[in-house]
């Protein structure tokens, strides 16, 4: 449970970070959607330690793709 809470906190931090980084080009809801999509793609993976970093990278790719 503590690991899940830590991951949830880290994912919220990713949303905050990317909302700030993409505020000029994306609505916060779009950022949340990209992060949720990226996070869902790692569901069921047994090793969770790097999920927040991987989610951030994948969400950035989603947001960058939708910008151009």
Automatic annotation (TrEMBL):
Gene3D superfamilies associated with the record: Corynebacterium glutamicum thioredoxin-dependent arsenate reductase, N-terminal domain (1.10.8.1060)
Organism (species): Streptomyces gilvifuscus
Record's protein name: Uncharacterized protein
NCBIfam families for the chain: MSMEG_6209_Nter
């Amino acid at each position: 449970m503590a690991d899940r809470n830590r991951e949830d906190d880290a994912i919220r931090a990713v949303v905050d970070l990317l909302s700030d980084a993409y505020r000029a080009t994306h609505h916060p809801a779009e950022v949340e959607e990209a992060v949720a999509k990226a996070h869902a793609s790692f569901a069921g993976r047994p090793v969770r330690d790097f999920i927040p970093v991987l989610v951030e990278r994948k969400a950035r790719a989603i947001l960058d793709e939708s910008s151009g």
